[in-house]
């Protein structure tokens, strides 16, 4: 399909390469929601590489996706609509069943105002290559601000399914990659492949933020005073530790491609004597910034984790500290006004 689009772009003066890139993303978004396929994919960064089998097909009157992770502990994940079922033995650990294709999955925000305002999309025909035995069309997705990462994306020429994607920094270093080694789009997987096993447990995905959650988040004294442009609150939760009577808060933000979560947790008594100074660490595209603070509620640990540069996460954390000077707060920005629905 993209070859047809490319020919039209060359022969028809009213069609630009930017239009071609937008059309390809639209076709990708449609294919991710409607096409069946099966494939083997490698994913990772640095010396941390893994493989998985991915299958998508109709089941229970909707399109479902199954990922069987082929390295490490035996585990699988089944996604149907807004639910995900994790299948494995033992306790579920963070990062155990990653969304390998993220952000180029069925939730990709094509044509969203945020995406179009804070990222530019360009056709990169010089990067076209053959992947998994299939021709592809390459795109560049470049952030308009330096506080987030960019992407390179290769779409299948027939179906526009993503065959390969890189997350890259401002120096074009590859921070993370997924790439199909083989893919079959000719037959749908059997519906039985998407049935939940006895060891599966269900969690909810992409639940809409409620008005009450948004109000509580904005009323929180820990809500960041600065956010990268285009990032909005996606989820908020509040709990209380019965032992230390301190609230624990979680705030998740996203611009549609990248996301980060801000945690506020109590420091246990056995560790309260050794408060940690601010420190940051990075794993591929994921970074974390942590700082312990003394507060009227006790000793707290603030953590920001997400697919953003360390400097961005540190600025977010700094803006949430209650003892920022007025000049610092003014330079970082102000809290957003509660949107009207």
Cα distance spanning the termini: 39 Å
Question: How many structural units, i.e. domains?
Answer: 2
Largest sheet: 12 strands, antiparallel
CATH level-1 class of the largest domain: Mainly Beta
Coarse morphology:
globular
Q: What's the overall average pLDDT, rounded? A: 84
Strand content: 35-45%
| Main structural class | alpha+beta
The whole-angstrom Rg is 22 Å
CATH architectural label of the largest domain? Clam
Protein name: MucB/RseB C-terminal domain-containing protein
Subcellular location: Periplasm
Domain MucB/RseB C-terminal: 219-317
Keywords: Periplasm, Signal
Key phrases:
341 residues, alpha+beta, outer membrane lipoprotein receptor (LolB), chain A, Phosphorylase Kinase, domain 1, 12-stranded antiparallel beta sheet, 6-stranded antiparallel beta sheet, 6 helices, 18 strands, 18% helix, globular, disordered C terminus
Task: Put the structure in a nutshell.
With 341 residues, this protein is α+β, with helices and mostly antiparallel strands. The chain is built from six helices and 18 strands.
